[in-house]
Amino acid sequence: MMTILPSASLRNQYSEISERCKATGEPIFLTKNGEGDLVVMSIEAYEKKEALLALKERLLDIELEQRSGAKYYSLDELDSALKRIVG
């Protein structure tokens, strides 16, 4: 469920907003003069979103490399190569 609050809530209810963000992992949207202004979220939720975005970007890079003809290896091929190297 999306939570939308006026920006004055951040000043007046900081502790409650902080606790809610941490408990739910969901962002809270703040408005100023009735318009969207800021998004507040816990650091943990932010870091998870950033990690997911980085993973998606890397997967897209890999897909683009494969489409351009770059060589890639299956897990079995990698396993075999490592066994030859390590012994």
What is the strand and helix layout of this fold?
Layout: E1 3-6, H1 8-12, H2 14-24, E2 28-32, E3 35-40, H3 43-67, H4 75-86
- Number of domains as seen in the coordinates: 2
> How many individual β-strands?
3
Which spans of ≥5 residues are poorly predicted at pLDDT below 50?
none
Q: So how many helices?
A: 4
For the largest sheet, list the strands in their spatial order. Answer: 1-2-3
The helicity comes to 55-70%
Using only CA atoms, what is the Rg? 22 Å
Question: Sheet bearing the most strands, described?
Answer: 3 strands, mixed
Mean pLDDT: 93
Distance between the termini: 55 Å
Strand content: 15-25%
Globally, the shape reads elongated
Protein structure class:
alpha+beta
Write the element-wise H/E pattern from the N-terminal end onward.
EHHEEHH
